[in-house]
Structures are given as C-alpha cells and as structure tokens.
C-alpha cells in the first residue's frame, strides 16, 4: 500500500469508526497533540485532551451527532516522507435529512502506529458553496 493509499484508508476508517460509535478506534487516528479547528467547535481545540473535554460536555448534554452516513469524497492526498496532507469534502447525512458538506484539510505524520492526524481543519459549506 502506498503512503497515499494508507492515508486515505486511515481517514476512511476514522469516519467508519465514528459511525460505529467506536471512540477508541476513532481516537487511534489522532495524535495526542492534534489541533482541531471546525466551524461548529468552541474555538480551536489544541490537544486530544481539549477534544476529549469538549466531547464529554457535548455527550453529557445528549448532543452527540446522529448520522445515517459520513464519508470523505473528492479526496486528494500528498505525501512527503513522514508528512501528509489530505484534502476532501466530508459529506454528513443526518437520518432523514439533507446532506451537509464540509471542506476538510488534515495534516498527518507517520508514526510507529501508522498515519496520525496532527491538525484537522474543517469548514461547513453553505448550500450555495456546494
């Protein structure tokens, strides 16, 4: 498997894990120092610990997203030695709802545990941007 294929497979598995509710598997794709910047988040989260704290408060409030489908589309991956960048459109479909499209950039580093996301940046697209 090439580096590009391995990165794409890791990202696909990340979203499959989310749909399955498998947080340990989802988290296995994240570096401990991952920064997470997303449109809906309360400012940039600068580590897995920050992300975990956000998820704990979200889940305690019963606000974990329920999705019928979640998939990376139009993926482009570039690899340079132990660093990779993946750009794609994430399509999230709520049960009975309309698909939402998010433009995503992930920066990954190769480690002994495979490719880990060190920076995740996601911007929700308005319907007129699709």
TrEMBL record:
Residues 7-122 form the SnoaL-like domain. Pfam families: SnoaL_3. Transmembrane segments: none annotated. This is SnoaL-like domain-containing protein. It comes from the Bacteria. InterPro entries: NTF2-like_dom_sf, SnoaL-like.
